[in-house]
Amino acid sequence: MRQPLRAVGITGYGVYVPRYRIAAREIARVWADSDGALPVTTKSVPGPDEDTITLAIEACHNALARAAVSPQDLAAVWVGSESHPYSVKPSGTIVAEAIGASRWISAADWEFACKAGTEAVSAGMGLVGSGMADYVLAVGADTAQGRPGDALEYTAAAAAAALIIGPAESALARIEATLSYVSDTPDFFRRADRPYPVHGQRFTGEPAYFAHISAASRQLLADLGRTAQDYTYAVFHQPNVKFPQTVAKQLGFTAAQCAPGLLAGEVGNSYSAAALLGLGATLDVAQPGDTIFVASYGSGAGSDAYSLVVTDAIVERRNRAPLTAAYLARQTLVDYALYAKWRGKIAV
Amino acid sequence: MNIAKHWRQNGARYRLEGQRHRDGTLRFPAQSLQPGEAAADWQPEQLARQGEVFSFTVQRGGAAGFDDAPWTIIALVQTAAGPLVTAQLTDCAPDEVAIGLPVELVVRRIGTPVADGLLVYGYKFRPRLLM
């Protein structure tokens, strides 16, 4: 496992989910003979004026509000996504400028499919943990793409989650340790300039999601001398509802431990935001002393696992910004035609 | 597209940054200095992120850059700090807007340009998430 020299934690967290949803059965109505077994109930849809940058900005404002840290005190603004609006021009500088960060920072974009956000978190642990900085803003945000009619279209969603990584003494949750596990696995990819990603034949599932999350999680638990029973809550990357439920069971976590952070049924797969969004929803209900196990997953492939301990600061800080439930409650269903128009799927 | 025109407005568009005069007057958007004024007379200041709809109109058609939108809501927002700000409402349908509606600042795309154009972001208001 990896641990910084200086103990670190989450000083503030913020989430954002767009207002709009489309029902999976509405997608099935258009493309399938039946609505059989659908991977989610609804998924979030970005409004016509939203993209990864705008999603990230709101999540960052919420994280700053909870942390009560001035944006001028951030040393880095790092945005992880697989749907950065520009191919060349960082999202990080736009987000940094929008939240009022100093210009004397590191700003950068991270890419690792669905775990680009947790990559930024781990790097932030390094920067703060080495003593080079006090506060790093790490964001996972996506407006994920799905080819019309493809299995991905039922789940590819939009959301953002931001964490301010800071010294453990100011944290609402301490990060005890992390561990990453990666391999060259061709389970899912999108070539440059292609609009939609593709699944790599039979690689999705067992050799990809399950193998990597299991490896990172089992090793981190072993290094810490813990088992699943030692945790109050657990959050796993959630491309659908079934995968995180299955990997949780394999690792010994119960459905109750995962319940607060399992949002895929309503939100869909928010890619780089997914695990961090689940963590945010879990922190919304956690109490001082609770422990949280988190494992992200990114295709291509890898998993970042974390062990967290919630501190007393959670009680006073969580209500400084909207809870995840407020965003989930604000939902307007759109039909497939409006969704297709907004997502640029209609060639005019 | 005049890129400089957009870049110059980043402070106002991203952060609703106006100017506070040494006599306490707050104005938005920021303006150039008048003859006899010193740079130190006006300091940048962000307006509050929350306000109420003072008045509004529904334009039947998309705003520039959103030509395929069926309507656009343009509102005068009474910000808590004082200035009236003209802005689009977003995450809001025409039948959901009313005078007095509590709104809050968001940053959204304010234009969808041609393939090789700059993406332009700026302030809009939406119905307050937490009433």
Describe the structure.
The complex is a heterodimer of chains A (348) and B (131). With 348 residues, chain A is an alpha/beta fold. Chain A folds into two domains: 184 residues, Thiolase/Chalcone synthase (Peroxisomal Thiolase, Chain A, domain 1); 142 residues, 3-Layer(aba) Sandwich (Peroxisomal Thiolase, Chain A, domain 1), CATH 3.40.47.10. Chain A is 32% helix and 23% strand. Chain A is built from twelve helices and 14 strands. Chain A is globular. Chain B is mainly beta and 131 residues long. Chain B has one domain. Chain B contains two helices and eight strands. Chain B has a five-stranded antiparallel β-sheet. Chain B is globular, with a radius of gyration of 16 Å. The model of chain B has no long low-confidence stretch (mean pLDDT 92). Chains A and B meet through α2 and α3 of A and α2 and β7 of B.
Order of strands in the sheet with most strands of chain A: 5-4-6-7-1-8-13-12-11
Shape of chain B: globular
Helical stretch tally of chain B: 2
Oligomer: heterodimer
The main β sheet of chain A shows up as: 9 strands, mixed
Determine the most extensive contact between two protein chains. A-B, 22 and 19 residues
Structural domains of chain B: how many: 1
Domain tally of chain A: 2
- The assigned CATH architecture of the largest domain in chain A is 3-Layer(aba) Sandwich
User: CATH superfamily of the largest domain in chain A, called what?
Assistant: Thiolase/Chalcone synthase
- The spatial strand order of the largest sheet of chain B comes to 6-5-4-7-8
Q: Mind telling me the C-alpha Rg of chain A? A: 19 Å
Low-confidence stretches of chain A: none
Would you tell me the overall average pLDDT of chain B?
92
Helix fraction of chain A by DSSP (H/I, runs of at least 4): 25-40%
